Amino acid sequence: MNIFKAFENDIRKLLEDLAAEGRIPAGLDTSRLTVEPPREAAHGDLSTNAAMILAKPAGKPPRALAEMLVEKLKARPDVASVEIAGPGFVNLRLSADVWRDRIRDVLTAGTAYGDSTLGAKEPVNVEYVSANPTGPLHAAHGRGAVFGDALAALLEKAGYAVTREYYINDAGAQVDVLARSTFLRYREALGEDIGEIPAGLYPGEYLKEVGQALAQKDGNKWVGTDEAEWLPACRDFAIATIMEWIKEDLGVLGVRMDVYSSERALVKAGAVDTALTALEDRGLIYVGVLEPPKGKKPDDWEPRPQTLFKSTDFGDDVDRPLKKSDGSFTYFSNDIAYHFDKHRRGFNTLIDVWGADHGGYVKRMQAATTAITEGKAALDVKLCQLVHLMKNGEPVKMSKRAGTFVTLRDVIEEVGKDVVRFIMLTRRNDQTLEFDFAKVVEQSKDNPVFYVQYAHARCRSVLRHAATAMPGADLSLAALAAKANLARLDSEEEMALAKRMATWPRMVESAAEAHEPHRVAFYLYDLASDFHALWNKGRDDASLRFLIDGDEEVTVARLALVSAVATVIASGLAVMGVEPVEEMRS
Q1: 3-class SS at 387?
Q2: pLDDT > 70: percent of the chain
């Protein structure tokens, strides 16, 4: 149960009652009405802006309308107190039983607690990673992979029908460079001295593996042939090989894609022509000459007629070229076709996860998506900033295999999948992330991975001790939900935990709507902090310990609380793709 959404609906009903009584006009627009936690806990449990946003259309001063709501809310048995704050905000304090009942909700639902019908099974396409198939994944790819995967899981928990997609950029100049680089390594594998890697080719050691595999497969079949013969073969082999590596790396990270879409297949199927014809039919393509780019001197600019898309009609800064000087399509044309293809497959909500270096590409792609789908689809682009790899504060050296970067596989092998996934979500996607190999495995409160996992492990430890101390007792979630007298939970720390867990369903919905999975990591840290606070209080005050000799009723109530905390942590970690630990090992 989302207690905030429940009160939001109830307040709407109270407003309808006031209208039926003739005290305010009927039919007021309540779409902007919210019920949220107050900014300061001292102000209460819930706060609503109802009187503020409806005062003018209701023809009432905000406080006068707030007083009407207070009158209605005071009559509710689940409201302990209600008051007006500032110009007309209404703050409520709920009875302790409301929060205790949320513990029972957790025990009843298990890790499905927080599942929502918000999305109403709306199809959503989340495209992420989509790294060029020219080499192994690096740490920054890992950040995008974790972000996209967690976002997909979060949207699923909020009730959306999510498709996870990888767009293979297997057309264009970069894969031809890959083919030439592979051919060089193929010749090397056959015994030729290739000398220094020429400028413009990929120098990574990983291509030795590709060249050797090609030599093993085809022998000297391509030696002495023209580029027109060997280039397609080398290109296809290299792309297939590297995509297998990428899929393996994603698998080790716990990422499984539903769809792999090929740019080359899309172009070959005529999708670009189809998309551009649709734009042309609506008068959105023309031949014109663009102004010189900012920062270029006039004598550096060679004006020429180009096929342009009216991107400025849809919020972009300038119109964008669709064809190169040789008449071939630009990357932008291909990307328009790809997003049109996603829309035609039934997706009106499109989310792309890109690297920060693609920031200048966002406006044109959003403009094109709006245009090609006639406003039916919306594209949200989430940019992931860089990851700085450190060890004890010093930058980590580059990988020998990759040549220019540390591979994602290197990072996972060093600290483990769960640590990588958790740490990648401890910053907003648009903020630079510092990943220190030493700090992320540190056993301290400053390491959020350890702090959250330690809370779960402590919960499981309590439950194991309880099973030993109470042989034969049924301590399952269902049994605890049925028999625990939660009224025995009355300490400040116990109620803080109950209130924190009650906010999980709201957090799921708000994070899903904002496309911000990092909020899950922040929430889990706060929940863990509340639990550790209760644990530490019990060390000083024996009456607050979880297992109380001679008082089975309070023990069972506290075991219900502990089980609920472990369940909510597990529910949040599942969104992050992280396994909860049963016990901590040094």
Answers
A1: strand
A2: 97
Q: Which of 39-48, 275-284, 294-303 has the highest mean pLDDT?
A: 275-284
Average pLDDT for residues 399-412, to the nearest whole number?
Answer: 78
**Contact assessment for residue 63 and residue 74, using Cβ atoms and an 8 Å cutoff:** no
Query: 3-state DSSP call for residue 203?
Result: coil
Residues facing residue 388 across a β-bridge = 434
pLDDT band at 459 (very low <50, low <70, confident <90, very high): very high
Extended strands (E) in 270-328: 285-288, 306-309, 320-321
Asked if residue 400 lies in contact with residue 499, where contact means CB atoms within 8 angstroms, the answer is no
- Asked if 533 and 565 touch (Cβ cutoff 8 Å), the reply is no
Query: Tens digit of pLDDT for each residue in 123-169?
Result: 999 999 999 999 999 998 999 999 999 999 999 999 999 999 999 99
The span from the CA of 285 to the CA of 275, in Å, is 11
How confident is the model at residue 292, as a pLDDT?
82
DSSP one-letter string for 441-483 = G--STT-HHHHHHHHHHHHHHHHHHHHHHSTT---SHHHHHHH
Rounded to whole angstroms, how far apart are CA atoms 76 and 3? 15
Helix boundaries (H) for 167-297? 173-189, 206-218, 227-252, 263-268, 271-281
Q: Which two tokens stand for residue 18?
A: 């006031």
- Integer Cα distance of 191 and 184 in angstroms: 11
* Closest by CA position to 561, among listed 497, 511, 503: 497
Q: Which pLDDT score is estimated for 298?
A: 57
Q: How many residues does the chain have?
A: 586
Please give the pLDDT value at position 398: 67
End-to-end CA distance of the chain: 38
Q: What is the distance between the alpha carbons of residues 46 and 2, in angstroms, rounded to a whole number? A: 12
Model's pTM, two decimal places?
0.94
For 110-138, give the DSSP string.
GGGTT---TTTT-EEEEE-----TTS--B
CA distances from 326 to 70, 92, 170, 227, 276 (A): 71, 68, 20, 20, 17
320: Cα separation from own chain's centroid: 30
**Calpha distance 136→138 (Å, rounded):** 7
**β-bridge mates for residue 308, sequence order:** 286, 321
